[in-house]
């Protein structure tokens, strides 16, 4: 993946997020500057799975001009290899294996983060996938299942295979999203791996991104919830490295982002229905409202049920030209422990 990373600055990658990073979301991020590289939501792989049509659209109809890596989750080796070959028939820039999802239903089936309990099995899967995949093969992991002390053993396995990038969400599966990240594990991987290592977890503003890079020497940053909250984050980081004006978004900028998100995701659904769409917007808003008007917008949004109530709440707190805070509040229940990244 070295060839996809700009040679003068760290790479910026949009984190794969189920039910978030679909085609309209990727297009919207690109309008705000966007990442250098996209990764799809995961394709769920089982013995009889096919390619999810909606997720496939983020590859086949992707007109952002940026590379898209297709992510898979599963544990059935034959099915993973078959799916990787099917995906490679489309214009993917690589295939990624998810070794980090903490959802109990996924881990119980020994997929995603659950696989980290079985390094030998990971070894087998990586060997088979490396043989099956013609192009770039990347891995996204956490630093262990229950304890970061598991990470050196996992790194030994990763080192054995010719992978083109390793992205590390710097928490264990058990940590879920509740703890600060462990940059020292990412730094260890940077030392150990021949391929680029991308640091992920809790980057919420330029300062936390720079701190993560300073502690790890990673080749890039992957941004997830921080990008939902502030789509300006990619261009702010780029401006920091390349010179140029750093955007300081105002309340009204946020209002137009929320409207654009509403419109883009609504237009994507052939059977658009307002009520479920407002519910979908409320899931994005969990990240977006963090810290706005001292929690008042979050409080209002939780209670809205109609489009009118939704936008009225947004307007009441965002129809102004004051700059928005770059960081969430330090006691944020969404971005737990981000302030430790300094
Ligand atoms: C709603 C949501 C969905 C996610 N779906 C995926 C996924 O499909 N594949 C994956 O590897 N990680 C997934 N993740 C994890 C993110 O890619 C990322 O590793 C994590 O959110 C930490 O980064 P952040 O602090 O920048 O958000 C998801 C996270 C969230 C919040």
Could you list some keywords that capture this structure?
342 residues, alpha/beta, TIM Barrel, eight-stranded parallel barrel, 8 strands, 42% helix, globular, binds flavin mononucleotide
Q: Termini distance?
A: 28 Å
Largest sheet: 8 strands, parallel, barrel
Coarse structural class: alpha/beta
Q: Mean pLDDT, rounded to whole units?
A: 96
**Parts with pLDDT < 50 across at least 5 consecutive residues:** none
- Following the backbone from N to C, one meets helices and strands in this order, namely EHEHEHEHHEHEHEHEHHHHHH
Count of the separate structural domains: 2
User: How many strands?
Assistant: 8
Shape: globular
CATH class of the largest domain: Alpha Beta
In order across it, which strands form the biggest sheet? 1-2-3-4-5-6-7-8
CATH level 3 topology of the largest domain: TIM Barrel
Helix count equals 14
Explain how this protein is built.
There is one protein chain. By secondary structure, the protein is α/β, with parallel strands linked by helices. The protein is built from 14 helices and 8 strands. It has helices at residues 23-31, 53-60, 77-87, 104-108, 119-132, 151-159, 183-192, 206-216, 225-229, 233-242, 251-267, 274-288, 296-303, 307-318, and strands spanning 11-14, 37-44, 68-73, 94-99, 137-142, 165-169, 197-200, 220-223. Strands 1-2-3-4-5-6-7-8 form an 8-stranded parallel barrel, surrounded by 4 helices. It is globular and about 55 Å long.
């Amino acid at each position: 993946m070295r060839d996809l990373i700009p040679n003068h600055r760290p790479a910026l990658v949009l984190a794969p997020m189920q039910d978030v990073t679909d085609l309209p979301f990727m297009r919207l991020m690109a309008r705000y500057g966007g990442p250098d590289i996209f990764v799809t939501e995961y394709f769920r792989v089982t013995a009889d799975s096919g390619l999810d049509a909606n997720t496939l659209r983020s590859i086949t109809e992707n007109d952002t001009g940026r590379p898209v890596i297709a992510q898979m989750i599963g544990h059935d080796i034959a099915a993973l290899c078959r799916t990787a070959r099917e995906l490679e028939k489309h214009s993917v820039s690589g295939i990624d294996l998810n070794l980090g999802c903490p959802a109990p239903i996924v881990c119980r089936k020994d997929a995603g983060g659950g696989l980290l309990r079985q390094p030998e099995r990971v070894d087998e899967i990586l060997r088979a996938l490396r043989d099956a995949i013609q192009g770039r093969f990347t891995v996204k992991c956490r630093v262990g299942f229950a304890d970061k002390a598991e990470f050196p053993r996992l790194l030994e396995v990763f080192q054995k295979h010719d992978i083109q990038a390793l992205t590390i969400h710097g928490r264990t599966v058990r940590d879920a999203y509740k703890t600060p990240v462990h940059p020292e594990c990412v730094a260890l991987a940077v030392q150990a791996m021949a391929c680029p290592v991308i640091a992920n977890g809790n980057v919420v503003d330029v300062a936390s991104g720079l701190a993560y890079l300073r502690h790890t020497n990673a080749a890039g940053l992957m941004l997830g919830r921080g990008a939902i909250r502030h789509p300006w984050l990619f261009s702010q980081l780029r401006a920091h490295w390349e010179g140029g004006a750093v955007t300081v978004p105002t309340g009204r900028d946020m209002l137009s982002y929320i409207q654009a998100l509403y419109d883009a995701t609504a237009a994507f659904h052939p059977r658009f229905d307002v009520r479920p769409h407002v519910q979908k917007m409320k899931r994005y808003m969990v990240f977006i409202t963090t810290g706005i008007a001292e929690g008042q917008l979050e409080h209002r949004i939780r209670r809205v049920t109609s489009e009118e109530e939704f936008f009225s709440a947004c307007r009441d707190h965002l129809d102004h030209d004051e700059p928005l805070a770059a960081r969430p509040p330090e006691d944020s229940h969404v971005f737990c422990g981000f302030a430790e990244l300094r």
